[in-house]
């Protein structure tokens, strides 16, 4: 313990902050504001300590994960642990489990809500298991009658019907309201059909228009390139373009319309 105390960096808090021991029922109304300030200071001091801040229980209580504050992923919605049921894919070959009620498996996952998608991660490794895109068929249902699950929550889009199980009806209602309000506010452009049947609204002055114009202009030359050369050539001019982007949505034919597969097929 002596060695460990000497290794602690100066300036770091070494003691747990304390909370008042008196019950809330004995506190006078004029002292409510100071009581709230004590709780705020307590939580602030807890989050200043790396040992407690990085503890999974603290992150679950606050509702954050390693993806919460990445700016390029868009605004942050609600997060938390949820029980996910297997199956529900509308892509041939991905729904082998879950055809009957006896085949269903429940897994504990961390659900993250963003403006244009939902994703869930494995709690032990943080690996992203699945991303559910917001599209024109996006909807949320709640209740045992709709989901065949007690305290169930069903989230649908064009490619999947995701079934979640909550601890109570109030918990399911909290998830439904949080997801619906956030998507309606930040992802409303993805909920309707746009020009040419696109899933996304028209954006002015974007690199996407430059890419489309470039592909149309140099289509013959592009088809003559080998697949690897074509991918390299595109990355030379569009380094932020992902080879795994799907050029047609919804994804109903596997990887057929993924960019790298298209280039390989054309070459």
TrEMBL record:
Gene Ontology terms, MF aspect: phosphatidylinositol binding
Record CDD domains: PH_PLD
Stored InterPro entries: PH-like_dom_sf, PH_domain, PX_dom, PX_dom_sf
SUPFAM superfamilies: PH domain-like, PX domain
Tree of life domain: Eukaryota
Span of domain PH: 75-184
Disordered as annotated region, ranges: 1-30
SMART domains: PH
Protein name: PLD1 Phospholipase
Organism encoding this protein: Pomatostomus ruficeps (Chestnut-crowned babbler)
């Amino acid at each position: 313990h002596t060695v460990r105390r000497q290794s602690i960096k100066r300036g770091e808090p070494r003691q747990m902050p304390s909370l008042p021991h008196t019950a809330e029922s004995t506190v006078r109304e004029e002292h409510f504001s100071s009581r709230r300030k004590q709780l705020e200071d307590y939580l602030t001091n807890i989050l200043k300590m790396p040992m407690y801040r990085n503890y999974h229980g603290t992150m679950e209580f606050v509702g954050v994960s390693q993806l919460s504050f990445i700016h390029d992923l868009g605004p942050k919605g609600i997060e938390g642990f949820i029980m996910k049921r297997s199956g529900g894919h509308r892509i041939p070959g991905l729904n082998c489990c879950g055809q009957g009620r006896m085949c269903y498996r429940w897994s504990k996952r961390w659900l993250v809500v963003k403006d244009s998608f939902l994703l869930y991660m494995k709690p032990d490794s943080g690996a992203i298991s699945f991303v559910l895109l917001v599209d024109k068929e996006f909807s949320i249902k709640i209740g045992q009658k709709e989901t065949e699950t007690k305290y169930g929550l069903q989230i649908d889009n064009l490619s999947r019907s995701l079934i979640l199980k909550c601890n109570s009806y109030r918990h399911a209602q909290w998830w439904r309201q949080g997801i619906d309000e956030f998507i309606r506010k930040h992802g409303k452009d993805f909920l309707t059909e746009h020009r040419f049947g696109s899933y996304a609204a028209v954006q002015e002055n974007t690199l996407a228009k430059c890419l489309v114009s470039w592909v149309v202009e140099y289509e013959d030359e592009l088809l003559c390139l080998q697949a690897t050369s074509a991918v390299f050539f595109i990355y030379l001019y569009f380094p932020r373009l992902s080879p795994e982007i799907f050029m047609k949505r919804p994804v109903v034919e596997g990887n057929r319309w993924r960019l790298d597969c298209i280039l390989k097929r054309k070459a």
